[in-house]
Amino acid sequence: MKKILLTSYSLGLGGIEKALINLLNEIDYKEYQVTLILEHKEGMFLDSVPKEVEILEYKISTSKFVPWRKLYNRLKLIHWKRKLKKQFDFSASFTTSSIPGALLALAASSNTALWVHANYYILYEKNVEKMTEFFDGIKAYQFQNVVFVSKENEREVKEHYTKFKHTLVCNNFINGKEIEEKANEPIEFKRKEIPLFVNIGRQEESQKRLSRIIEASKKLVDDGYEFQILFIGDGPDSKKYKEKVKEYQLEDVILFLGKKKNPYPYYAISDAVILSSEYEGFPVVFLESLIINRPILSTKVSDYESLEGKSGLFCERSTEGVYSMMKDYLDNGFITKYPFHYQSYNKAIKKRFLELVEEGK
Asked: Which of 58, 150, 206, 359 is close enough to 282 for a disulfide, judged by CB 3.0 to 4.6 Å?
């Protein structure tokens, strides 16, 4: 039985965390023994981890006494690296930004992989020096393979960071059957007889740019349009968004529902799913929308070209772009054109993942 080690930050609400759970659910535990190391053993998806997976916590010190903190964390890292050294057949750091996760994965096997879930060139505002410092900090150049979840991310990041040994694209798994089943669960929310949009995810401005949706909504309401938007999730900028909605007197238009472990019934009752991000990997929300067969309204983030005109409307990454896109939908609607077969989608990803585990390429 081959041994796999995966590392991540935590299992809170988020696309990376959900993608990790979907990956774990695809593994055959008769063939593989899996250990998961988390910096924080917490989060709403913790109880979704398959029972066969051993979960370990690697919690660093956050003491304000800097000399003690540095010494403690250094000694802990040395101890764990020795304990894990070449004990696994395959090891991967699944949360790109986790420095401990990267260092432990590198120690645990000679067959290593680093997952990259975002376009770090855009994330660092096209500052190549800062992006290089980030990837050097997690020793990305030491990983046998670097796995991007979208073609656009791989293309742009590789163009400006040339130290990777080997890169490939492997989209995230999606649990289509679970989504279809959970989408039918009852909820208390009663929608009005007006268009309803839903946005699901972390409420954080530097990436998600929900201010674009709020400002576009203000313009549309001033134009005389009627609609509602459900914001599901939370994050560091939730308070700021709520204050902006209140300032614009949009409390009856944009509704904050908080975190939902099962967001899928909200997809099902909505007319379309809306995103306003500045950058993404290939968003899990896209896949969820395809399974529930809801049109996607989104800014032009990674690999949108494969969906444009077939599964939704896409716009420039600006408030004006979001406004025009929403107006287009409210005026003309959108009907999705092709069914999405998640079984075939997952089968191809599983083949690619097992090639990594077995062969390292």
From this structure: 150
